[in-house]
Specification:
This protein has about 230 residues and is mainly alpha-helical. Helices cover about 70% and strands about 5% of the residues. It has nine helices and six strands, in the order ββαααααβββααβαα.
């Protein structure tokens, strides 16, 4: 058993099972599919046809985005507002970054994330929504009585996910910074943008999905972390 701060839930091994083991058929299928997609993608990129599997990234993102909302416990105005806010703000800051080098630094998107508008793939807006919802749900597990602390922890988790994606993003033709390596301003910018989006999520989305979101966060770290480690070892 362990406790993380006075505002956090008290956890033991049985409690953690509530977030790791799917109960409903919808959650079981969804969790199974995201692990299947990413494990298949991992082996496909490494051993079968790198370009073919990378070209399916938009399909994977779109299907995962749909499953995110299928697994929401309650679809209401709060969910719609939080999703819309994350999409608009996320897409807007990406537009400023790609076209003017603001907030994140100078970078450009490649071709493996699908249709672009103003140099930014439309799916990037959806990805901001997805990352906000899954990290926000995990953050709420630990900081269930404080929206501010949950928002800060959710933003921190989003930065960590970006941190493991950045080393492989150019090789996957997702995006690339002008100086190849992402600058410190990228991570600072991520947190500063993610925090208000997370706060909106924490205050507007109740109740929150737990199991699917928890697994999708784990999948992100597993998939991109594996490629980052392989790249460091090579």
């Amino acid at each position: 058993m362990f406790v993380v701060g006075k505002d956090c839930k008290r956890f033991n091994s049985n409690a953690m099972k509530d977030y790791l083991i799917p109960v409903t058929n919808t959650t079981k299928i969804s969790v199974g599919l995201i692990w299947l997609f990413h494990i298949s993608g991992l082996f496909g990129i490494l051993f079968i046809d790198r370009e073919l599997f990378l070209e399916t990234t938009p399909i994977n993102l779109f299907v995962t985005f749909i499953m995110l909302f299928v697994n929401q416990p309650q679809m209401d105005k709060g969910v719609g507002f939080a999703a819309g806010f994350a999409f608009i703000v996320g897409f807007a800051v990406e537009f400023l970054g790609v076209n003017y080098g603001l907030i994140f630094g100078e970078y450009a998107y490649g071709n493996n994330l699908g249709l672009k508008v103003g140099g930014v793939p439309l799916l990037i807006g959806a990805n901001w929504v997805m990352l906000t919802f899954i990290t926000g749900a995990v953050a709420a597990i630990f900081f269930n009585t404080s929206a501010i602390k949950a928002a800060a922890f959710g933003a921190f988790l989003m930065v960590l996910i970006d941190l493991v994606i950045e080393p492989v993003a150019p090789k996957f033709d997702f995006w690339e910074f002008a100086d190849v390596t992402a600058p410190l301003s990228n991570y600072i910018g991520w947190f500063l943008v993610a925090f208000p989006i997370q706060w909106v999520y924490q205050t507007q989305v109740k109740p929150k999905d737990r199991v699917f979101s928890f697994h999708l966060v784990l999948v992100q770290f597993f998939f991109f972390g594996a490629f980052s480690l392989i790249q460091l070892a090579s």
